[in-house]
Amino acid sequence: MTISARELLLERFRWIGGHADMWPLFRDGDAFKVVVRALIDPFRDAGVTAVCGIESRGFLLGGAVAMELGVGFVAVRKAAGMFPGEKLIGETEPDYCGLRHTLRIQRAALSPDDRVLLVDDWIETGSQALAVRELVAAAGAKLVGCAVLVDQMQSDSKAALGEFHALVTADELPDASMG
Ligand SMILES: O=P(O)(O)OC[C@H]1O[C@H](OP(=O)(O)OP(=O)(O)O)[C@H](O)[C@@H]1O
Hints:
This is Adenine phosphoribosyltransferase. It comes from Allokutzneria albata (Kibdelosporangium albatum). Homodimer. This protein is 28% helix and 29% strand. It contains five helices and nine strands. Strand 7, helix 5 (127-138) and strand 8 (142-151) form a beta-alpha-beta unit. 1-O-pyrophosphono-5-O-phosphono-alpha-D-ribofuranose binds at residues 54, 56-58, 95-96, 120-128.
């Protein structure tokens, strides 16, 4: 019997010391492939031309999704001074930790004919995803949608992220007090 990405995620997910631990899922090559393919499913025929991923876990998933879709990857960096050349820069609202981040993409990475899929492991306040939306718009490109493993976002702003696809919601995961 084939196990679905959703079942894999629910089965392998752990809390360790209050931190969500999905790394064992990525360590298993077969499971990783199933999860990446499930993230892509609604977007296979959406005309996506670029995948964006936010530093750092979004790099891992976004790169894999880009490869599978056969398009390029656009890094969204938080770290200052790490990106060469001209950049587009945006500030986030406070994220799930109450932190504001400065997000950057290389200006030349996107053009007005690009159709962008944002990929991440987890969305909670949506602050970082919404800031990426602004960067994509500043490049003149279109954010087609957002694919995440875990959705914990309550805000109505989710609609601003285009087609939204999550493998599970946070309330389906084991309770954080278990870890
Ligand atoms: O919806 P929000 O409240 O904006 O939070 C979601 C973001 O937070 C996490 O990254 P984190 O900042 O923990 O960085 P990491 O991937 O390096 O752990 C996650 O990977 C998202 O990028």
